[in-house]
């Protein structure tokens, strides 16, 4: 079993494994997810990413509690991230308690505000209707996120899908600054401005869809199929996926990558060993940029705070 998982130290001193195992899948089959997590633990993955809206909390929780009961791991050796869904902004404490019930855990390591969007209570549709939106009050949401932390329900709090402007606003009223901003990042969406802002404010950037989500209903093969990525892979006797992951890690970010296929799971964790050189970095820097998860489903002309995706990302798209 691999036991050399690299860690990053967050702004509150907590250490987080740099490779996270994503648990979102279009099918959301509990048994498949549970099996994949058990296999991932054997391979050395120690960071698991879930969210209420993925429906994967129960399967992840079962796999972790079984592994803890079997003595495969101790609770303190795994890092679990989950997320506040947009219809729970009115009560993050109750939402996190429900997440803990689903996972069968006493605490999680990281709780993230999934999107800077508030929906009416009870809306569990990942693609909301116009009538589902509510008025966003991030100051109130963040206050209750801080209470989650104070109550010991989680060890860290953070955000996801926040632009630099939205982070800047949050920092104006936050007593506890976010430890992490989890955003889309890969060789075709490099987040230079956001990474620079986060570096200055000691907010760690975590990359979701680090392969561009090939095979997801909304994802693309553009990243792993890109000729530049493929040629760098060939040069290092690595795979395109490993190049994408290694590039993320070399930029100081952690990567949250999903595969439920044993061969690809091994391949992905093996990216820790892949070292790219400055020439590779320059080649990637020259690639065209393309944001794949654009968030159109959270914009509308009437009820959303964002009329367009430019509003949602504050022109950082
Ligand atoms: N915060 C957010 O808003 C947000 C948004 C999206 C995702 N996430 C999190 O980030 C995780 C990862 O993102 P993602 O699932 O969208 O994208 P991803 O990790 O970039 O891609 C996953 C897809 O790539 C395939 N794949 C995995 N390894 C591969 C490899 N080595 N070569 C070729 N294909 C490979 C997987 O299929 P197989 O399973 O068949 O290998 C799956 O279809 C999610 O599971 C979720 O936990 C967060």
Automatic annotation (TrEMBL):
Residues with site note (Lowers pKa of active site Tyr): 83
GO biological process: indole alkaloid biosynthetic process
One Pfam family cited in the UniProt record for this chain: Aldo_ket_red
Keyword NADP: yes
Keywords: NADP
Residues in NADP-dependent oxidoreductase domain copies: 27-287
Protein family membership: Belongs to the aldo/keto reductase family.
Subunit structure, as described in the record: Monomer.
Protein name stated in the entry: OLC1v1027170C1
Species this chain originates from: Oldenlandia corymbosa var. corymbosa
